[in-house]
Amino acid sequence: MLEIKNIHARLGDFRLRNISLELEPGDYLTVLGLSGAGKTVLLEVLAGLVKPEAGEIFMDGKDIGHQSIQKRPFGLVYQDMALFPHMTVYKNIRYALKNRGLSSSKTKDQVQKLARQTQVEHLLDRHPGTLSGGEAQRVALARTLASNPRVLLLDEPLANLDVKLRQELRELLKKINQTGKTIIHVTHDPMEAATLSKKIAIIEKGELIQWGKPEEVFRKPVSEFVARFSGIKNIFLCEFKTENGKNGLFQGITQKNLVIRTLEEPVKPKAHLMIPGEDIIVSEEQLETSAINQYQGTLKEIYLLNHGVELIVDAGELFSVIVSKKSLQKLNLSQGKKIWINFKASAVRTL
Q1: Closest to 347 (Cα-Cα) out of 266, 289, 287, 291
Q2: Of 100, 111, 194, 345, which residue is most buried, by most CB within 10 angstroms?
Q3: Res. 242: pLDDT tops 70
Q4: 326 pLDDT band (50/70/90 cuts)?
Q5: Domain assignments of the chain as residue spans, ordered by start
Q6: What is the pTM of this model?
Q7: What is the three-class DSSP state of 276?
Q8: How far is the C-alpha of 125 from the C-alpha of 91, rounded, in Å?
Q9: Res. 243 pLDDT band, cuts 50 70 90
Q10: CATH numeric code, 235-350
Q11: Cβ burial, residue 258 (10 Å; 0-12/13-18/19+)
């Protein structure tokens, strides 16, 4: 088990504050945050490149925070890969095996094995300058895996790749993780995190805001920042009245005077309400349903997504609604059509 306890670090005016995480062997943790949030600094602290002001790092109960870079069980792959330009792909991978005491035949076998695993066998005689971005990233992974780290640290590994290469590299990272390799992967892309992670940590301005399983973080964000960063668009600042507590319901009034009912008692007179787009039902007529929040609106925009269709509906506020492509056809939805949106009070969360 990897335990990161109360890490504090400073780089110039930037500070990483009170970062604590726990990872089981074989976990895949994605660290999400905007540029400059401190994600890469955290990787560098783990790798030993940045000395923390305070905090501890334990591997299987052993304090490794004072170990040298070479002795730490981490392998760091930077976004720019940092391959040796004067060496072939074969020699780049072999370089990490130099100090492992292997015979030349075993070294060659190990390079071939890693090349197969990362699908770069056909590139072994090439130099880094002749490789595409996706090819170079695979070589960098192979070279880092050659040192047999217990934890793979990845700094934006899918950045600057086209859609096809990104998908191929995602599949490769999943396969590497399935071998039991623990991975910590830094990114600013929530979709990337959702498709790869077993756990997600969200960092904002050097602080850990929330972490847990993807479904917990994305479905139950603890703040407006986490909600928006997770891709949730239906977030409305509401004012609550003291008399709004009848029948266990609380009424939030948006800035455009739309009333949204929730079961969650707000902690302050003004708070944000959040409704996941997947929890909103679309109908052509008003439904007889337990969904107490029902509004008629106009379909303004339609966007095709990988996992369905996003509808933008003006129902006094703009709502983002996620439906299936089958529903789009069944309801004959088109821009300008009048429709109803429906969602339960239990689907509404206060932030």
Answers
A1: 291
A2: 111
A3: no
A4: very high
A5: 2-229, 235-350
A6: 0.82
A7: coil
A8: 9
A9: low
A10: 2.40.50.100
A11: middle
